[in-house]
Amino acid sequence: MFSKRTRPSTPKESSHFLPHLVEFQQGYGGVVSEKIAAQHVQLQQEREISRASRQCVICPVLLLYGRCRTLTCQYRHLLCEVDKSVSSAVPKQGRIQFEVLKICTPTHFASRLLTLKKDESADWLKLPHKDQYENVQKLLKDYYSQPENIRKLREPCRQDKCAYKCSDGRFERVSITFLPSNSRDSDIRVKNLDSNTAIYHVKLHELVQLPEDLKGFPPLALDIRLVGCIPFNGEETWQSPDLQPVGEFLKEGDICEASICFSLSHTIFVEQLEVEQGSYRELLERNRLSRYDNEIGNCLRIMCNK
Ligand SMILES: [Zn+2]
Description:
By secondary structure, the chain is α+β, with helices and mostly antiparallel strands.
């Protein structure tokens, strides 16, 4: 019998401690043995595949820098087909004008696309998202005004589009992004499709079936992320106090303009963002909120194409 102190660790314990061990050794300039390094790489790959298959939340550091070096990070770093298959409703190049729906961080905004200029010589083209949003809101209101149409979701699946009744009585189209094995009692994670891109937890009984014709509309809110601007104070990610000074030159409801760098299914990465007072990047820098890192664009491009 092994005593408690000397028993070998179980595979589960080893897989928990291995990233901590490698991170610790690297952090202190130690040499990680080839065997440990190989085991660690394999473990990380298995974990990322598992996180991708469960559609875990993408790492915020990865979305800001195009890479995450924290070996013990619990977020997902592998993009999958669902993230990368960009529908025709999401432009991949050109200049866009959009309405800011929610300022999530100084460089991440839930937005609604308004117009697109495919290239310098092209005219501005009106995009359908705003009209579709108003149409969808009306259709939802009419449909659920009939009590017989409010039907519980029976067998939820990940990626299902359904509806959530908000506290103001309005119905919001949502997509299921995480489903626990026992979805009857546990929290289900959903993402708003139209009014913003918020992700939150609900109970199964709070979700109702969405008619097929309303599922057909693409998401009418998208994430827009400004490339290359990172926290000035050296923090790895944005902190909530960073939002307050941004309010001096950007507010929800503002119309902005930017150039598309590249797109994922629900996210457009942009540069040259113009707000009413001028260049947004210059405003961030002048207010000592962010600094620009030229390398990040490439890292993000590689991340999107991997
Ligand atoms: Zn990470």
